[in-house]
Amino acid sequence: MVCSTIITRATDALPLAASVDDEQTEQSLQEHKQQAKLVFRRITPNSEPRCSIESGQYTLHYLISENVVFLTIADKSYPRKLAFSYLDELSKEFMTSYGAKVDSVRKPYAFVGFDTFMSKTARLYRDTRTASAASGSSLDKLNDDLQDVTRIMTKNMEELLWRGDSLDRMSHLSTSLRSESQKYRKAARNINIQAMIRQYAPIGGIVLFILIFIYWRFW
């Protein structure tokens, strides 16, 4: 079944709205909600617009629409088609109600009132039988991408975590290389200066001696 839902802004992962979960759900999904935050931080303009990320007994399904990410945590056995049908309904209603305000909001959960619609829609999608009966006509109207669930990217949370760790290590390595490069350039400049001093110091000494001699001789 659909367990929890979070809506964020894609550009900066600012939370815009979220389902109000009971204490038991909050505790059981604590780890997966942390994983959802990781997913939001990994979102880029090149990310897949629809993706399912498997994590233990749950799957995180997300949909990106006009700079807004709609993500739901559902049981692993819950059909992807119904999960994305649910997200599709949320995205249409949310963009109709708040789409023009998304880019201008600054505080988190600015659209907390959207929970009413989320709760009502989530109840319809609580299990596969209810969802199929309540939204059969909606499913028939879904676009080709949604109907063909095989086109929806599927990933594994471990893979996402590993890729993120690799990116972090690459970033650290890049920073270290830049630091070492700066140290090398500084050392190279010092060596060049010292070499110039050693090369021209004798000549400079002779010239200085001649100038002193001329000054002393004629003045």
From TrEMBL:
Keyword annotations: Coiled coil, Endoplasmic reticulum, ER-Golgi transport, Golgi apparatus, Membrane, Protein transport, Transmembrane, Transmembrane helix, Transport
Membrane topology qualifier: Single-pass type IV membrane protein
TM regions (residue ranges): 200-218
One of the record's GO cellular component terms: endoplasmic reticulum membrane
GO biological process: endoplasmic reticulum to Golgi vesicle-mediated transport; protein transport; retrograde vesicle-mediated transport, Golgi to endoplasmic reticulum
Domain of life: Eukaryota
InterPro entries reported for this sequence: Longin-like_dom_sf, Longin_dom, Sec22, V_SNARE_CC
Start and end residues of each Longin domain: 6-118
V-SNARE coiled-coil homology domain mapped to chain residues: 138-198
Compartment(s): Endoplasmic reticulum membrane; Golgi apparatus membrane
SMART domains per UniProt: Longin
Protein name: Protein transport protein SEC22
Species this chain originates from: Fistulina hepatica ATCC 64428
